[in-house]
Amino acid sequence: MKISRDLVATINKTGAADQEASFGFLSGQLDKSGRDAGEVVRKLSEFQVAIPSWALGAGGTRFGRFSMPGEPRSLEEKIDDVGLLHALTGSAGAISLHIPWDVPEDYRAIRERASEAGLVFDAMNSNTFQDPKGAPESYKYGSLSNSAHASREQAIAHNIEVIRIGEKLGSKSLTVWLADGANFPGQANFQQALDRAADSLSQIYAALPGDWKLFIEYKPYEPNFYSTVIQDWGTSFMLANHCGPKAYTLVDLGHHLPNTNIEQIVATLMYKGKLGGFHFNDSKYGDDDLTVGSIKPYALFLIFNELVYGMRNNPGNPYPAWMIDASHNTKDPLEDLIQSLEAIREAYAKALLVDQEALGNAQQEHDVVRCQEILQDAYRTDVRPLLRQARLQSGAALDPLAAYRQLDVRRHLTDQRGSETVATGL
Length: 426
Ligand code: PSV
Ligand code: MN
Prior knowledge:
Elements: H1 5-12, H2 16-32, H3 37-46, E1 50-52, H4 75-89, E2 94-96, H5 107-116, E3 120-121, E4 124-125, H6 149-169, E5 173-177, E6 181-182, H7 190-206, E7 213-217, E8 227-228, H8 233-243, E9 247-252, H9 262-271, E10 275-280, H10 297-313, E11 321-324, H11 333-352, H12 356-364, H13 368-379, H14 384-393, H15 400-406, H16 409-417
Parallel strand pairs: 1-2, 2-3, 4-5, 5-7, 7-9, 9-10, 10-11
Antiparallel strand pairs: 6-8
Alpha-D-psicofuranose binds near residues 125 and 287.
């Protein structure tokens, strides 16, 4: 199934007059305080978020998985799904692949299919948390940090192979999430495991093409429950520095213990020019992988406030690679991703409305109340007319979720693919 621009334009006719009125009103309001709605709309249109290939199936937990009819059966169909999302939202212009789940058979055909849907290939993801089929070595006791030399060598070779696959697709970065750790006290020597991980990562780093980046993702626990080799941003940052200038930390919002001040982590990393990648999701308890903004939208806004500040004030930090890393369990994955994309743009738009200069002055004067008012004035603004305007201008749907339902996309996909399909992934 493909959604053409003409079809979207026809659907958009229904809400066009309302949108004109609400955008006109908000523009006028913002103008009074010297804020340019057109500029925010332009920035929103530019903000593209990668969709990981593993987020197009229903996901699940270790207790079970309830598939969604019409799940993509192949890499081609995953690309088609992201193409549908992009056509409706205008904000999902990239796909992020996970190897070995998504090894292309025909590279040229895959590249063409993605480019026809307006997609580029974002960061490649390696996988050493599952044993590869038929491989001689196991990752049961770790991969890049395993005390067995042969397991480490296999894991390093896999990561280098992922880089080579990514090169053929036009990707420019590799994300390593290292699941290595221990389940029981005494099981591993912390210092030696870290030393081996650092050495393995350096070897992968040495195989990076000149214009590539390495993103090192951290996570406090799971799949190991006692310790994780790269458990926090500090460890990731240290390893990125150990590797070299093309290595960066990747922040996944779900990879923090409850109540961690993630916005401060973002600020610290950007100050040091080391925030390379970002995985969006939301959580109540741990790495829940819930819809972005569904639990703590104000925290997401505060994080975006630091991202906007960093993008303006830290020229040494590269433009981060944005990706949604969520699971859907009981929702239609495409509907859930539309909701996440909306929440991301909403938080970004609100952060763009923060009067950074006024905030800086209030901070200087120690006017704590005013500081809070400035942030909350931006947060309380209903920015949805700006989001709709950005979509309208880029030929996407005014209301992507309503359009998705109106076009009966899931039924079309199910008719095409069947109701028993299961996408590769977790
Ligand atoms: C691990 O929890 C993670 O966040 C990493 O980014 C993985 O690549 C992804 O989820 C899928 O397992
Ligand atoms: Mn992640």
